[in-house]
Every structure is written in structure tokens, then in C-alpha cells.
């Protein structure tokens, strides 16, 4: 034994020996086990290697004291008597135990079979019976822990009362699948007949899921199984864990109401989640239509199968509605299907007074039509269409007016179809809450639309309304306002004296009415400064001073808003020389497309943005061949929150390159297609111009000596040139204007004196000299011999002026070609009459 217990596999040696000894001794079992309670032998081989069942601490204590131990305990086959002895090493250390046992049933059988034979008489049998009764009584006392029959009866009655009183079903099934016990609650929950004990589980008519669970033999914890109209929580445990009889005990709880509460709680959670989603998803844009669409998308399919929104027309325009109306425009739709026979989006719907929508608009409260088949007011709206809606499967409606700040904006209609439950009274409050949240967002979008429309109107009124007449450039432009708000981008094409043209692009940082108004002020200022015929860098200096004053005024008014951050690029193109002079104040530089299609971004000194002051601006002069293209733009074209400006310039160059003969209008569109995103975050202004040049036959220049006698010669040469151009009818006024300008230059200016005559849409006379002194027009007295020259020039010319050059000044006068000779002579006669002496 000691050697076997020390082996790695004691069972291999001890199991055959133990079984042979058990059979020879007619015992029920002989078990060899270690001090940890693990069996090495057993008649049932499946229990080898498993733990001893029941308390065994007293047995171990006796074994450690080197004493045998005898006790009785209940087993599956009845009460058993066990005798255990220790197995020790020579040094006295305990290495295991051997337990041998026999049941009382076997003892009785053996005694009943053998003693009558041994005694051989009836007296022996009587003695045996008496002795057996005494033994049985003692054994019963031990099994019942000393309780008598009365105590056992009271205990049984108590346990039975408890078993049938608990509100939990209890079912005990034997190992052979027969029902051993079912309490009253189990009978009620499973609807069992009265005579169920002893019947097979499969014969009780139970639900398949429950019957299978009772017979499976496996454990289950709170497994939900349907039983008729009930939902039962089932717990199953085997009864043979502690050596008990095979079978299972099952408890049942009715969780139908609990699941109903859980369903309602889940529905409430979903509604709260839907309201949360509405707060997040509705109103992401300040667009009325898009906000209405977001409302429909949130409610489908979580609350309704179809949702439609109707808004009053003033709301769509951004105006304040004057009150509820029966006429609304279908603005948005969303549904689980796309083909319901509702009014289409965009249609103006006139609701009859009995319609639920009209009633809701009038009362300001939601209206419920749980069953549209029984809704005469709704059917009266459009009998043919409503019948198609019913045939389509729509059968329930909630309509809620959209109200914000006490103003009715429209209505939202929630529809449910055949596959969904009908709307009930509990749905009204949720629909009203959802509509109230959406109405606030729609009203915010409406007010923004109104302000945006006002700002856009203001901005467009401040931008050029069309192309001015000029011959120096072929021009096209595009202006795209940002969807997020009106900005301060602007552009301009300004004809200048001498057939020159100024191109302007600017940007006021920011959005809204303030930016648009500031842009208008700057554009007007550029027009005024250009009338002074200033160079680009000088014009930007004056514009910078103006922006600084605007900022100062805004600060004084404590508005906190300034125009600092405005930028501008100003360029002047001269079609006579082909030179383009430009300067910029913090604005993106231009792009030049040469006649061969190559693109260049010339280096124009950037300068500081307008309003900062302190540093001068620097102008550059570019020589452009005829047919060159100039692209001026604002930063919104090339810069975006998702794109770096260098990438934008590269894309711009690619869009411009390789198409020298493309029209300016097509070029603008190609640039926008290549660079502008679907939702631009900033205004975009693009100005494209292709250069032209005046022919040499349209320009004539003469040098004039500083001698009054040279005036007659110049007049003759000018008359001949006008005759060559076919402009003989303008010769008189042109000679008169030129005589006055040349005489002033000879008398008050300095050499060199030059006369230039330009023929384009008008006839332009230019007289330049080396003096920077500017003449001015005055009112001569009747006694004065002079002082009427510039007055005559102003009367005969359409416009006149002075511009300064690095070497002096140029006095110019421009005449239109629409006036005939008669008109000219009429003007002359009227002027001469002003100096007639009434006394002569």
C-alpha cells in the first residue's frame, strides 16, 4: 500500500486489489484516498480522481491520531456504514486512508437470507424479525437525527406549506425524465393537470423550449422561455452534485410584466436618444430648407414611417410671417419608401378648414388622427389623393404646428403605415417636443436668411453692375458669395484717361453687413482716387489712410469692429505702350498668361494690409504683349480650410495654362470648376482680362517748341490728322481745345512740351510739359483779358484733367464722337454770346 501510494499512478495498482477484496467481503465499496480527499479506487470508475463526498475532517483527525473511524451517512442507495483506517509509513507519517462500507439494505438482505437457515426454526425467524425491528428503529433514529414521528410529520407539513406558498414555481424531475414534484405556482405557470407526478415530462404538453430545458440535464440561469402568453425566467440545477439522486430541480418566475416594463423603458430610452439626435443633427446649417430636411431625416424611421414639412412662403424668403395661413409650401419629405402619393416637395398646398393641419395651425396645438380611414376632415382635403394614400398603406397621422417665439412658421406631419402601430395619445407629447426643437432651428435659419439676403442685396448693389465701355481689355469676371455669410470681396474695372484701364481687386476680412458696408466705402474711395489719376502705389497710400480713419471711427463708436485686414491690388494697363503698372497691399499677386499659354506669377511686393500704415507701397511695371491674360483674384479662390494656398496656386496655374485663345468668360468658368469646392467658406472674386493695344495709326505725337507761334502749326497738323481719321466735324473744337492747352503749356509750363492725339472711342488731346504746376479753372471778369481758356476746354470737352508723371504733368481733354458739327457750332455760338457787350 505504501509503495503504491507513492507511485505516480496508485490507481493502476490499487483498483484491482480493492475490487477483489470488496467482492470477497461482500462490501458495497472499498475506497483508497489520500489526505486531500481524492479517491484512488472506487467501484464506479467515473468517481476515481474526484473528491470524497461529504464531511471527512473527523475521519482525517482520527487517522492522524492513528485510530480507525466508523460512521454512518446517507448515500444514493440508502444509509451506509463506513469504516476508515489510516495507512502510515514506518516513520508514522500519514499517506492515505482505506474506507470500506456496506449499506443497511445489504445487511438486512444478508440477515434475512442467512439467519433463518442457520437457526432452522420459526423461533429463529421471530427472533430475527424482532432483532431487525430493533436495528431498523435505531437506524431510523440515526437517519432522522433523533427526531420522532410527530416531529417529522410537523416538519413535513411545514416544508410542504412553504413549498406551495412561495410565488416561484418549483419542479423536480427524476433522472428518468419523470416529474417527481410540482408546487402550486409551477402548476399555474405551466398550466399542468392535477395528476402530473410520475408522468414523463414530454407527456405534460409543455412548451418545447421548457420541456427540452427540463430534460437536458444541464444547468440554466434566468433563461427566458415563452409559455403561452407568459415569459418565464427558468433556473435549472442537477440534484446529484453532493451524491444525491439523479435528476434536476427547476425554479420558474413570471417575468411578463418585467419585460413589459423593460420594453417601455427601452422605448423611452429610444425616444430620449431620438431627441438627443434631433438636438445634434437639426440646425447644422443656417438654411431653412435644409433644416426642414434634417427634421424629417431624424424622425424616420425611429418615430414615423414618413415625415413631411410645410412652411409658409414668407419663412422660406426669410421674412416674418404675419400669422398662420391655410396655404403652405411642401418643403421637405423623408420616408422608408420614396414613392408615397403625398403632395410633392415644392408644391403650394391649400388646406381646407376641416383638415387636421389647418386645425393645428389655427389652434397652435398638435392634432392626432389615429386611424385615417375614420378621418373625414382629412379626407375632405383632397378625396382622390387621400384615397391613394390609404391604398398605399398609410393609416395614422400626427400633425404639429411649428412655432417659435409665438410665431407659427409651418407644420410637420408624421405618418405611419400598415407595418407600424397606430399613433396614440402618448405619442403626441413626443411629437410636440420634437417639433418645438426643430421650430427654433428653422426660425434661426429664417432670421439668418433675412439678414443674409439684406447683406447680399447690399453687397451686390455695391459691386459693379456691368462692364464699362473701354477698348484696352477683353474682360470677364465671376463673384461667388460664401454660403456662411456675406463677405467683403470686391472688384472693379475703371476706364482712365488716355484709353488706359484700371483693374482693382480687394477683400475686407470678415463677413456680414459691416464687411459689405466697408467694402462699399473702399470701392467708392478707389473710384474717387482713380479720378485723380494717381499711380497705383500713391492710390494705395491714400486708401491705407482712409482705412485707418475708418478703424479709428469704429473704435470711437465702441463697436469693436474695424476694417483692419482689408487688402487690395490695383493695376493700370496702358494699351498704347502695353505697360501694366501694379501695386498691392497684402493681397495675393496676379497671374499672367502669356500669348503662348505659359503661366507666370510675377513678383509684386506684397506690402502691408490696408489700415496698418507705417510703410510705403511699391509699384512694379510689367511689359505685356498683346493677347496676354491677367488674372486678379481674392484669397478665397486659392485658399481653403482643406487646402494650402500653394496647392491652390498650382491648381490655378494648371487651369489657366495652355488655352491662350479661350474666351475670358470660358476661362473664368474653367478656373472656378477646377478650384472652387461645393461649399466655399469664403467669398471669391475673379477678374480676367486679355490685353489689346492701339494701332500705331490711332496715336499721333508732336513735339512743340516753347514759342507761341508754334500753336498755329500744331493746329494745322491736328486738322490734317483728324481729316485722315474721317473726323472733320470735330476739327473746330479739337483745334480750339488744343490751342488753349498748348498755349497754357508754353506760357506757364516748361520744356519739353509734347502733344499727343489718340483716336479710340473718343478723341483725346494730351499736352505734356516738364512742370508739375497744375492749372485750375477760374471765373474771369468781363474786364479780364485772359482766364477763359480752361473754361472753354471744360465746356467743349466731355471731361478733362491733369495727371502727373515722373517728369512733369499731362493735361488731357476727351471729346465724344456723338456730337455733330451743327451741335458743336451751336455750342460755340452760345458760349460767344456770354461775352457779347450789350452796349456795342
TrEMBL record:
Location in the cell: Cell membrane
Give the matching SMART domains. GAF, PAS, PP2C_SIG
Q: Name the UniProt key words of this record, in alphabetical order.
A: ATP-binding, Cell membrane, Hydrolase, Kinase, Membrane, Nucleotide-binding, Phosphoprotein, Transferase, Transmembrane, Transmembrane helix, Two-component regulatory system
Domain GAF: start-end pairs: 287-452
Where does the PAS domain start and stop, copy by copy? 157-222
Q: How does it sit in the membrane?
A: Multi-pass membrane protein
Task: Extract one GO cellular component term from the record.
Answer: plasma membrane
Give the signal sequence positions. Answer: none
Q: Where is the PPM-type phosphatase domain?
A: 470-691
Where does the protein principally reside?
membrane
Q: Which SUPFAM superfamilies match?
A: ATPase domain of HSP90 chaperone/DNA topoisomerase II/histidine kinase, GAF domain-like, PP2C-like, PYP-like sensor domain (PAS domain), Sensory domain-like
GO molecular function list? ATP binding; kinase activity; phosphatase activity
Q: Which Pfam families match?
A: GAF, HATPase_c_2, sCache_3_2, SpoIIE
Report the domain of life of the source organism.
Bacteria
The record's annotation in InterPro entries points to:
Bact_Sigma-Reg, GAF, GAF-like_dom_sf, HATPase_C_sf, HATPase_dom, PAS, PAS-like_dom_sf, PPM-type-like_dom_sf
Which is a GO BP term held by this UniProt record? phosphorelay signal transduction system
The name this protein goes by in its record: Histidine kinase
Amino acid at each position: 500500500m505504501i509503495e503504491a501510494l507513492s507511485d505516480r499512478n496508485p490507481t493502476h495498482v490499487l483498483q484491482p486489489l480493492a475490487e477483489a477484496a470488496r467482492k470477497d467481503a461482500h462490501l458495497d465499496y472499498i475506497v483508497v484516498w489520500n489526505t486531500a480527499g481524492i479517491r484512488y479506487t472506487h467501484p464506479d470508475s467515473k468517481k476515481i480522481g474526484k473528491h470524497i463526498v461529504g464531511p471527512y475532517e473527523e475521519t482525517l483527525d482520527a487517522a492522524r491520531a492513528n485510530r480507525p473511524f466508523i460512521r454512518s451517512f446517507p448515500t444514493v442507495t440508502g444509509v451506509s456504514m463506513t469504516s476508515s483506517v489510516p495507512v502510515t509509513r514506518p516513520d508514522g507519517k500519514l499517506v492515505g486512508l482505506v474506507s470500506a462500507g456496506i449499506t443497511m439494505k445489504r445487511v438486512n438482505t444478508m440477515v434475512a437470507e442467512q439467519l433463518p437457515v442457520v437457526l432452522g426454526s420459526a423461533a429463529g425467524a421471530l427472533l430475527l424479525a424482532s432483532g431487525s425491528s430493533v436495528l431498523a428503529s435505531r437506524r431510523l433514529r440515526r437517519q432522522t437525527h433523533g427526531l420522532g414521528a410527530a416531529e417529522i410529520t410537523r416538519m413535513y407539513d411545514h416544508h410542504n406549506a412553504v413549498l406551495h406558498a412561495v410565488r416561484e414555481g418549483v419542479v423536480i424531475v427524476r433522472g428518468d425524465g419523470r416529474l417527481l414534484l410540482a408546487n402550486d405556482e409551477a402548476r399555474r405557470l405551466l398550466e399542468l393537470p392535477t395528476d402530473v407526478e410520475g408522468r414523463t415530462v414530454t407527456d405534460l404538453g409543455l412548451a418545447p423550449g421548457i420541456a427540452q430545458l427540463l430534460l437536458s440535464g444541464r444547468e440554466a440561469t434566468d433563461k427566458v422561455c415563452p409559455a403561452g402568453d407568459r415569459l418565464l425566467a427558468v433556473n435549472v440545477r442537477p440534484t446529484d452534485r453532493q451524491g444525491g439522486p439523479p435528476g434536476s430541480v427547476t425554479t420558474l418566475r413570471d417575468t411578463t410584466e418585467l419585460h413589459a416594463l423593460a420594453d417601455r423603458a427601452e422605448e423611452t430610452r429610444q425616444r430620449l436618444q431620438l431627441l438627443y439626435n434631433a438636438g445634434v443633427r437639426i440646425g447644422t446649417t443656417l438654411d431653412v430648407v435644409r433644416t426642414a430636411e434634417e427634421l424629417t431625416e431624424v424622425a424616420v424611421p425611429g418615430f414615423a414611417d414618413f415625415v413631411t414639412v410645410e412652411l409658409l412662403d414668407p419663412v422660406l424668403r426669410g421674412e416674418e410671417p404675419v400669422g398662420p395661413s391655410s396655404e403652405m409650401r411642401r418643403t421637405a419629405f423623408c420616408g422608408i419608401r420614396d414613392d408615397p402619393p403625398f403632395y410633392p416637395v415644392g408644391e403650394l398646398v391649400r388646406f381646407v378648414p376641416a383638415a387636421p393641419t389647418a386645425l393645428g395651425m389655427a389652434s397652435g396645438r398638435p392634432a392626432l388622427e389615429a386611424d385615417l380611414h375614420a378621418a373625414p376632415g382629412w379626407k375632405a382635403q383632397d378625396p382622390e389623393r387621400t384615397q391613394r394614400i390609404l391604398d398605399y398603406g398609410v393609416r395614422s397621422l400626427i400633425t404639429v404646428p411649428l412655432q417659435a417665439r409665438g410665431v407659427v412658421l409651418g407644420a410637420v406631419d408624421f405618418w405611419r403605415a400598415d407595418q407600424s402601430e397606430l399613433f396614440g395619445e402618448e405619442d403626441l407629447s413626443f411629437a410636440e417636443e420634437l417639433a418645438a426643437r426643430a421650430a427654433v432651428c428653422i426660425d434661426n435659419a429664417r432670421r439668418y436668411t433675412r439678414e443674409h439676403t439684406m447683406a447680399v442685396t447690399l453687397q451686390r448693389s455695391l459691386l459693379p453692375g456691368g462692364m464699362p465701355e473701354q477698348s484696352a481689355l477683353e474682360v470677364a469676371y465671376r463673384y461667388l458669395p460664401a454660403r456662411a455669410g456675406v463677405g467683403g470681396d470686391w472688384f472693379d474695372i475703371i476706364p482712365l484717361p488716355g484709353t488706359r484701364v484700371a483693374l482693382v481687386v480687394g477683400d475686407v476680412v470678415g463677413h456680414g453687413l459691416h464687411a459689405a458696408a466697408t467694402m462699399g466705402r473702399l470701392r467708392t474711395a478707389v473710384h474717387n482716387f482713380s479720378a485723380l489719376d494717381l499711380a497705383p502705389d500713391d492710390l494705395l497710400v491714400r486708401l491705407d489712410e482712409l482705412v485707418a480713419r475708418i478703424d479709428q471711427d469704429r473704435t470711437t463708436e465702441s463697436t469693436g469692429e474695424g476694417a483692419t485686414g482689408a487688402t487690395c491690388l490695383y493695376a493700370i494697363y496702358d494699351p498704347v505702350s502695353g505697360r501694366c503698372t501694379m501695386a498691392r497691399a497684402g493681397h495675393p499677386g496676379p497671374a499672367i498668361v502669356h500669348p503662348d499659354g505659359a503661366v507666370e506669377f510675377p513678383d509684386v511686393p506684397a506690402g502691408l494690409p490696408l489700415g496698418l500704415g507705417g510703410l510705403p507701397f511699391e509699384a512694379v511695371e510689367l511689359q505685356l504683349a498683346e493677347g496676354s491674360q491677367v488674372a486678379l483674384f481674392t484669397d478665397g479662390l486659392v485658399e481653403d480650410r482643406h487646402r494650402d494656398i500653394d496647392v491652390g496656386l498650382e491648381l490655378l496655374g494648371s487651369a489657366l495654362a495652355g488655352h491662350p485663345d479661350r474666351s475670358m468668360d470660358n476661362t473664368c468658368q474653367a478656373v472656378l470648376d477646377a478650384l472652387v469646392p461645393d461649399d466655399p467658406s469664403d467669398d471669391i472674386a475673379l477678374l480676367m482680362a486679355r490685353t489689346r493695344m492701339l494701332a500705331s495709326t490711332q496715336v499721333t505725337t508732336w513735339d512743340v517748341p516753347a514759342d507761341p507761334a508754334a500753336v498755329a502749326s500744331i493746329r494745322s497738323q491736328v486738322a490734317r490728322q483728324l481729316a485722315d481719321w474721317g473726323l472733320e466735324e470735330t476739327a473746330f473744337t479739337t483745334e480750339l481745345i488744343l490751342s488753349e492747352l498748348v498755349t497754357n503749356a508754353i506760357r506757364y509750363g516748361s520744356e519739353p512740351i509734347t502733344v499727343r492725339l489718340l483716336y479710340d472711342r473718343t478723341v483725346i488731346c494730351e499736352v505734356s510739359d516738364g512742370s508739375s504746376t497744375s492749372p485750375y479753372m477760374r471765373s474771369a471778369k468781363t474786364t479780364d483779358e485772359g482766364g477763359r481758356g480752361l473754361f472753354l476746354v471744360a465746356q467743349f470737352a466731355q471731361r478733362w484733367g491733369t495727371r502727373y508723371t515722373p517728369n512733369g504733368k499731362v493735361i488731357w481733354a476727351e471729346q465724344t464722337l456723338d456730337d455733330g458739327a451743327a451741335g458743336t457750332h451751336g455750342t460755340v455760338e452760345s458760349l460767344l454770346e456770354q461775352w457779347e457787350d450789350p452796349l456795342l
